[in-house]
Design goal:
D-Maltodextrin-Binding Protein, domain 2; disordered N terminus; 2 domains; globular; single chain; 10 helices; two-stranded antiparallel sheet; 11 strands; alpha/beta
Length: 295
């Protein structure tokens, strides 16, 4: 009988160990002991993370390589399929694991860096992202328009698209903005496409006169079209909400030491100008987050 009790106790401890070891992210020491760091990047998301002739490339891939090199470990990329919200991605790739693959990352790229978002609470007052630590902003993002200068020489205001055609990626914020802002007056001249790349193909074919999307993607994609005919606009976007926002990294909240170490890497890349060079390598507009100007 005593042997049975000891066996049950032993199995209970072992089960607890397996649940804990499978249910949390890894510490800085664990990562260094393993010799590799798992960093999650978004799948097919140029210029940040994509595969070119079988080789992972992109801004986030280069940053991930710099992090791994600084920690003296190998980089293991985890390719993310985006969920409907950032909270879905945190759950699927940081603290719980996807319902199918259960793979968790040590670090996630392109996380929102916004105090109001990180302190967001649910309907009973609990923190929505209490298991996630968002830190180290490395880029300030915004919106931008690429336009056909032959039919639309300048984009002075968004009101011009009551009379000119424009495209956007379907179900994106620009798409919802264009069909709903200003009382829907731009809706009839708005077309949607499967991606920004497809929208720019339509722009080149003369099906639309402009395309609206993320500034980083518009600047990246603009290198593949006729620069004399198609140019980036500098107009603002009234009624869209946030004109600019910061992106950074995220880890499981239990492992702040890992965050401090990686935060130092990001700070060095930003302040020494290496981050701007990484963006420039992909012909992508870079804007340093104000976080570093305040230090």
């Amino acid at each position: 009988m005593q042997i049975v009790k000891l066996y049950r106790r032993f199995m209970g401890v072992m089960c607890l160990f397996l649940v804990v070891s499978n249910g949390v992210a890894r510490s800085l020491d664990d990562i260094k002991d393993s010799g590799a760091i798992r960093i999650a990047v978004y799948n097919d998301y140029a210029p940040f993370s994509f595969v070119d002739n079988g080789v992972p490339r992109g801004i986030d891939v280069d940053i991930a390589n710099a992090i791994a090199k600084s920690l003296n470990v190998k980089l293991a990329l985890i390719w993310m399929t985006p969920g409907e919200t950032a909270e879905d991605d945190f759950r699927n790739y940081l603290w719980k694991g996807h319902i199918i693959h259960r793979i968790k990352a040590d670090v996630m790229m392109r996380a929102p860096y916004d105090p109001s978002f990180s302190q967001k609470r649910d309907d009973v007052g609990l923190l929505v992202n209490e298991l996630v630590h968002m830190f180290a902003p490395y880029h300030r993002e915004s919106w931008q328009i690429l336009h056909n200068t032959e039919t639309l020489p300048e984009v002075e205001t968004m009101g011009m698209f009551q009379y000119h055609t424009i495209g956007a990626e379907i179900d994106s914020i620009p798409h919802f903005y264009l069909i709903s802002a200003f009382g829907g007056r731009l809706r009839n001249n708005t077309s949607h496409y499967a991606s920004n790349g497809k929208a720019i193909e339509a722009l080149e074919a003369g099906k639309v006169e402009a395309v609206m999307g993320l500034r980083s993607q518009m600047s990246y994609l603009s290198q593949f079209v006729d620069g004399n005919k198609f140019q980036l606009a500098s107009n603002a976007f009234p009624l869209i909400g946030k004109q600019k926002w910061d992106i950074g990294l995220a880890i499981h909240t239990n492992f702040r030491a890992l965050g401090y170490e990686i935060g130092d890497v990001i700070t060095r890349l930003v302040e020494e100008g290496e981050m701007a060079k990484i963006f420039d390598n992909y012909n992508t507009t870079y804007e340093k987050p104000p976080y570093y100007s305040a230090q």
